[in-house]
Amino acid sequence: MSEQDESEREFDIKWADGAELKEPSARARMLAARWKENPPRPQPFRADPEPRAPRRSSWRSTAMVFGTVAVLILLLGYAGFRP
């Protein structure tokens, strides 16, 4: 790209950025049209998340993992010690 093309491109960008009227994006136009008919409910700055199901206690999960590993070790050990 020659220097003249680069300077013309820069001029075009400056010209476009300096426009008095800027057209909103397609998403902004879509939301404006949707909100005109059905405005959104007001929400606090950080809305509370939806309630979740209670989580299992971590010790139960840990006990299940260790139990499963112990059973696998015993089964593999028994299979290896067969005469």
Characterization of the model:
With 83 residues, the chain is mainly α. The protein contains three helices and no strands. The mean pLDDT is 80.
Uncertain regions: pLDDT < 50 for 5+ in a row? none
Mean pLDDT: 80
Backbone CA Rg: 32 Å
Q: Which band does the percent of strand residues land in?
A: under 5%
Residue share in helices?
55-70%
Descriptors for this entry?
single chain; 3 helices; mainly alpha; elongated; 83 residues
Topology record:
Elements: H1 3-17, H2 26-37, H3 58-80
Concise account of the structure shown:
This protein is mainly α and 83 residues long. The chain has three helices and no strands.
